[in-house]
Amino acid sequence: MALRSLLTTAERGQVLEIPAGTEELAAHYTLGEADMSLVRQRRADANRLGFAIQLCLLRHPGIALADDTEVPPEMIDWVAARLAITAEAWDEYGTRGETRQEHGREIRAYLGMSAFGIADFRQLVEHMGEVAAQTDKGLVLVEGARDFLRSRKVAAPGVEIIERACAQALTRANRQIYAVLGAQLSLDHRGRLDGLLLRRTDSSLTEIGWLRQAPLRPNARAMNEHIDRLTAWPALCLPWDAGKLVHRNRLLKLAREGASMTAADLAKFEPGRRYATLFAMSVESMATITDEIIDLHDRIIGRIIRTARNKQNQNTLASRATVAAMMRLHSKLGDTLIATKENGEDPFVAIDTAIGWESLAESIAQAKELTRPALEDHLALVSAHFTTLRRYTPSFLAVLDLQAAPAAQDLLAAIKVIRTVNTTGARKIPDDAPTSFIRARWKPLVFTENGTDRGFYEFCALAELKNALRSGDMWVTGSRQFRDFKDYLLAGSDYTAMKDAGELPLVTANGSEEYLQNRLALLSERLQQVNTLAARNELPGVLITKNGVKITPLETIVPQHAQPLIDQASAMFPRIRITDLLMEVDGWTGFTRHFTNLKSGQLSKDKQLLLTAILADGINLGLTKMSESCTGITYAQLDRQQASHIRDETYSAALAELVNTQHAHSFVAHWGDGTTSSSDGQRFRAGSHAESTGHVNPKYGAEPGRMIYTHVSDKYSPFHSKLINVGDRDATYVLDGLLYHEADLAIQEHYTDTAGFTDHLFALMHLLGYRFAPRIRNIDDTRLYTPTNDPELAILAPLIGGTINTKTITAHWDEILRLATSIKTGTVTASLMMRKLGAYPRQNGLATALRELGKLERTLFLLDWLQDPNLRRKVTAGLNKGEARNTLARAVFFNRLGEIRDRSFEQQRYRASGLNLLTAAIVLWNTVYLDRTITTLNQEGNTTDPDLLRFLSPPGWEHINLTGDYTWPRTNQIKPGKYRPLRRSTKP
Predict the structure, then answer these.
(1) Do 269 and 345 fall within a single domain?
(2) Stretch 801-822: mean pLDDT
(3) Residue 9, CB-side half-sphere exposure with 13 Å CA sphere
(4) Which residue among 53, 395, 586, 863 sits deepest, i.e. has the most Cβ atoms within 10 Å of its Cβ?
């Protein structure tokens, strides 16, 4: 048995999985003539079949036949058919253990393989120690061990033995990491690290607790406090470069483990682990604070500009009466002048009589005031906040080590000028200060009759700095989110080696430009095809005219005749408390076993206490209120349970367990085959302590909030969620859910709404092997693009927005592939790259070339959209499943008025993860009982139309009691293999 559990049940099954599909059987188990000759030497049918199956298993997946090996019937049938033997002969094989062992030895000799022994175990541990130094992901380690054994032609033992070897390798790697970091720490360094665990004299916080505190509000005071924290870390004079001696993944994991513990827990660690953990926390905390300072600056600048815009709007509303009076007076003036001209009167006398010169002069002065150039743009009003900026900008610019690409060198020079002015106390910006970074909109404010306005010059530079850091034109030494763009990518030599070997993990494995040319040729062909269909008026439900395109709306997704079955099935669901539901689902799946102790790797000793902490996250009640709602449970107990067992990775593993179980259920086949998914964002208001951390998006009003972006499969299960800022475009996070979920899904096609697509995303989705199908609002405004100007596309001409710059794509083809490969291999997260690419335009060709490639893929998709009503229907149905899940989430996340009120981002993430886990549990429970409901109706003679079953959906909650006291039964009230009785359909 393994020292600690590295794999889930599903993962153990897939490591040495025996193929069962026809194509896989043919690929792995087609016997050659030499194989058949060896098999025919056996005397009886049972021995021939058993020998052949042993031969197949040792060849793939490379395992020896043991007493407990479960050979799929499909494989037995396949091999038996090849040998012209009945499959029943398998039952007679191996009655003598010696026969099976003799066959095994002969086959290993034939294949040049050896049996797994103690020496192989030791070599495996030694080899996997190098892998474990880079990652602690159980599946990666075990699969690496399996591949190592295959490469050495050693018959693999059971998965448990491989897992044990990997666990030992992981333990050794951990000790090695502690030793490597410890060797770089002197006694003075260790003393300073121990000092981080001591309580501050002016606070109840420990030193490390204060240093790791998140900023409270986006204002000058919070910024200066955070700058003090960033300054305090370098003052420790630790050997910061030592962090480069440990793989980035392991250093980050070590830091996260330490961050989830109290200072008292850290102090109890043995010295090697304690100092390594504190050092890792120090390295990561310094990078985190740097990123948080930049984010604070971003939010402060954004808030000042937003306030100025609101102020201008208020001024405009307030001046309506003045403008109206002015217009009436000037209208009267016009009438007077016209009348004097017609009557030949003296106009000056008429003006004096009708209006009065004093009134006219006052009106003209008001008009000049309202039309001052400086007040035509709301940016002029930011001057009211210059004092706020000067409270922190000198130290802000001084503490950051800024670097710039050639395109932003002028801006960097301007920042250096501002630093000098701040240091010397000068009041004016030098005449030779750089100005080319100043946009036309800022120039009337920066350049005045009296010279360069220092306030607007600084504000303009700070605003452009914000944009440049977002795009990557500028970066900060020591930052994690704002590094040099090239530092994020796969090393050039590694990329070249993969390309030359034809092993790029993309749709074009060898990176040949021929692939690009084929896509362009396909685009030309499809444009001609759709143009011809449009000319014949044969595009179903689509009309293209010179004014654009009109698409007939689809009929209702759920037909009226399906509603009685939906109502009847819903009325038969048993009523259940949310606590009982979680206990029942855990009895089916054992998802709580994934919430292992951070330090020991052991399961929680109190499952009910663990479920209570999870429920507190999922329904947004919080630990304090939950302890008050549960008899015999204290806040301290819940807090310890959360600190020890609840983390991002445990939530992810538990979610994958629920999703896999739901996808394996037979009833879900009515909803899809598991290859499509959709994603959408759901906003929750940030209130109380979290209000200062929330972001504002005018789309949702003026209140700050957070967004939970969730991916939902075509079988309704939410397989990935991420807490994001409401100001970020949804498209930034689409790839994250597809690439980084842990469920056993093979998503091939993905749907989003309008906010979920960009041209960059279209390009990357295709290269990474996904069919991308967003539902684009106002499709009439979305243009098609052609490889070349083609006068024959007359019918499509109103929709064509131009040609694709194929030269740019070709020139940067390798850079595009390197970026996509970096994302696919996990060298950099997809959302980080999407945020960089979608930010303020970078002055290099990569973003432009990727956008041009995205135009190509978007045009191919739009042509399909125009031609295929089934595609339009599928996308709508997929997005409706996501909306149904969001409705369920809104109902579940009802406490605290549905607001996220936790200050720390970590706790906010736990809220999002708990909510997604809870909705997945409800979807699974409802799926099981939907199946039982339909089975019962059929048994009672109420035969249901199978075609209507796809309109039933599992995200309902009316039968679930989500409120009240949260009490847990002593044990699961439903015995294994049993279910709750259904309600009668006549008693809803």
Answers:
(1) yes
(2) 94
(3) 12
(4) 53
Opening angle at CA 921, ends 919 and 925, nearest 5: 115
Do the domain assignments include residue 872? no
For residue 239, what are its two tokens? 């050997």
Distances in Å between the Cα of 810 and the Cα atoms of 136, 217, 219 are 39, 47, 46
- Do 430 and 344 belong together in one domain? no
Residue 930 lies in a domain: no
Task: Check whether residue 355 and residue 237 sit in a common domain.
Answer: yes
Each residue's pLDDT tens digit, 120-151: 999 999 999 989 988 888 888 988 999 899 89
d(CA 141, CA 146): 9
Three-state SS sequence of 376-405: CCHHHHHHHHHHHHHCCHHHHHHHCCEEEC
376 shares a domain with 312: yes
In sequence order, the 6+-apart residues with CB closer than 8 A to the CB of 765 are: 734, 735, 750, 771, 772, 857
Are the CB atoms for 103 and 56 separated by under 8 Å?
Answer: no
pLDDT at 227: 94
Q: What is the tens place of the pLDDT at every residue in 199-242?
A: 988 888 899 999 988 887 888 998 999 999 999 999 999 999 99
Residues 395 and 427 in one domain: no
- Which of 367, 400, 433 is the last residue before a domain boundary? 400
Q: Confidence band (pLDDT; 50, 70, 90) for 4?
A: low
Q: Note the pLDDT tens digit of each residue in 610-641.
A: 999 999 999 999 899 999 888 888 999 999 89
Q: Do 774 and 862 meet the contact criterion of CB atoms below 8 Å apart?
A: no
Cα(675)–Cα(748) distance, rounded to whole angstroms? Answer: 5
Percent of the chain past pLDDT 70, that is, above it, reads: 95
| Residue 421 belongs to a domain | yes
pLDDT band, residue 449 (cuts 50/70/90)? confident
Kindly report the three-state secondary structure assignment for every residue of 409-459: HHHHHHHHHHHHHHHHCCCCCCCCCCCCCCCCCCHHHHEECCEECHHHHHH
With CA atoms as reference, report the closest residue to 551 among 256, 871, 218, 987.
871
Shared-domain flag, residues 44 and 98: yes
Who contacts 614 (Cβ-Cβ below 8 Å, separation ≥6)? 582, 595, 646, 914, 917, 918
d(C-alpha 903, C-alpha 673), whole Å: 41
Alpha carbon of residue 508 to chain centroid = 25
**Is residue 87 a contact partner of residue 76, using CB atoms and an 8 Å limit?**
yes
- What's the pLDDT score for residue 988? 36
Residues 314 and 435 in one domain: no
Helix (H) or strand (E) holding 711: strand 705-713
The total number of structural domains that make up the chain: 3
State which residues form the domain around 427.
402-483
Based on the fold, state whether residues 377 and 228 are members of the same structural domain. yes
Pairwise pLDDT comparison (730 vs 315), residue with the higher score: 730
**What is the rounded CA–CA span in Å between residue 800 and residue 805?**
14
Count of residues making up the chain: 988
Report pLDDT for 2.
37
Q: How buried is residue 468: exposed, middle or buried, by Cβ count under 10 Å (0-12/13-18/19+)?
A: buried
Helix (H) or strand (E) holding 151: helix 138-151
Residue 84 falls inside a structural domain: yes
Predicted confidence (pLDDT) at residue 361 exceeds the cutoff of 90:
no
Last residue of a domain, one of 483, 511, 544: 483
pLDDT in tens, 864-912: 999 999 999 999 999 999 999 999 999 999 988 888 888 777 889 999 9
